[in-house]
Amino acid sequence: MKKIFVLVLLSSFVFACGSTKEASKTTKTEENSVSNNTVGNSNDKINLDEYKEDSLLVHIELGACFGRCPVEKFSIYASGNFTYEGISNTDKIGEFTGNIKASEVKEIYQMMSNLRIEDYPEKFGYAVTDVSTKAIVFNYKGKRKKILYKMYEDYTELKDFLTRVRGIMANGKYHRKVKE
Predict the structure, then answer these.
(1) Which of 75, 90, 120, 145 could form a disulfide with 70 if both were Cys (CB 3.0 to 4.6 A apart)?
(2) Kindly report the CA angle at 76 between 75 and 79, in degrees rounded to 5?
(3) pLDDT tens-digit profile of 15-36?
């Protein structure tokens, strides 16, 4: 009976160590994926790799705050097509596709060239907790730049860009995305 007990105890120890190693690998993989693909704190994660990169012009995600900040994600492509996901505190809730006019795509591209995107830090304005996290991914002249921020600080042109792009999106033609 002692031999069976020792055998069971030993085998459970062996399997437990194996699962700990596997759990450790999984945790490390998850930590890497979080640090590489998402930004923000644990309550406000933003995944920056959910969009297509083929002809992406700009991808914007607005996170939650303690109030009624709009929580939404959208990607605009050079063709004028866009994807939109309204999550909360916005007129459109759900997933949509649509398009904007070619002149508006050109306007967005022009605004991006005026922004001097390369001069922006990748992360700023994290001193205030009750402010929506904003993430913008620019795909401009073959380069991709991610900017993550909460406050505009001295970057009023970035605020103006976001306001104008949201205005363009408001006038776009939306079609509810059909789940397959």
Answers:
(1) 90
(2) 140
(3) 444 433 433 333 333 333 333 4
Percent helix, strand, coil in the chain, to 5, is 40, 30, 35
Q: CA 21, CA 25: separation in Å to the nearest integer?
A: 6
Element holding 23 (H helix, E strand): helix 2-37
Phi, psi of 56 (to 5 degrees): -60, 135
Between CA 74 and CA 27, with CA 124 as vertex, the angle to 5 degrees is: 75
| Strands 56-62 and 71-77, bridge-based pairing | antiparallel
Structure tokens at 71: 């929580």
CATH superfamily of 43-176: Mago nashi (3.30.1560.10)
Closest by Cα among 98, 42, 87 to 61: 87
Say if CB 115 and CB 158 are below 8 A apart.
yes
